[in-house]
Amino acid sequence: MPVGLACLLLVLDLAALALLPKKLRRKKSTRIAVICVCSVIAIALAGYLLLTAIFLDAAYHH
After folding, report:
1. Residues 35, 21: contact at Cβ < 8 Å?
2. What's the whole-model pTM score?
C-alpha cells in the first residue's frame, strides 16, 4: 500500500471516528461497534505508517 494512500485512509478514518458517533446517538450498540472498528483500523494504519517510517530511516542510514 502506498504511504500516501495510508495517510489518506488514516485521515478519513479519524474523521469517521469523530463524526459518526454523533450521528448514531440513539443506537448505542451500533455506536460502540463503529468506535471499535474505526479505532482498530486507525491503530493498524498508524502502525503501518510508523513501521514504514522506521524502515525508510534504516534504509536511508544504511
Report:
1. yes
2. 0.85
Residue 49 CA to residue 46 CA, distance in Å, equals 5
Give yes or no for a contact between 9 and 45, defined as CB atoms under 8 angstroms apart: yes
CB of 8 closer than 8 Å to CB of 22: no
Sign of the CA dihedral running 17, 43, 50, 1: negative
d(CA 44, CA 52): 12
What is the block-wise mean pLDDT of the chain (62 residues), using blocks of 10 residues?
Answer: 93 93 86 92 96 94 86
Q: Which three cell numbers stand for residue 7?
A: 495517510
